[in-house]
Amino acid sequence: MQRAMVISIMERLRIAMTEHLALLRLMHLISPTLPIGSFTYSQGIEWAVETGWINDVASLQTWLASQLNSGMAQVDLPLLKRLYLAWQAEDLQAVETWIAISNASRETSELLLEEKNRGRALTDLLIALEIPQAARHKPLLSQSQVAAFALASLHWQVPLEQAAYGYAWSWLENLVLSAVKIIPLGQTQGQKLLHQMTPLLLRVIEQGLSLPDDEIGAALPALAIASSRHETQYTRLFRS
Question: Quick check: 109 and 115 in contact, CB under 8 A?
Answer without folding.
Answer: no
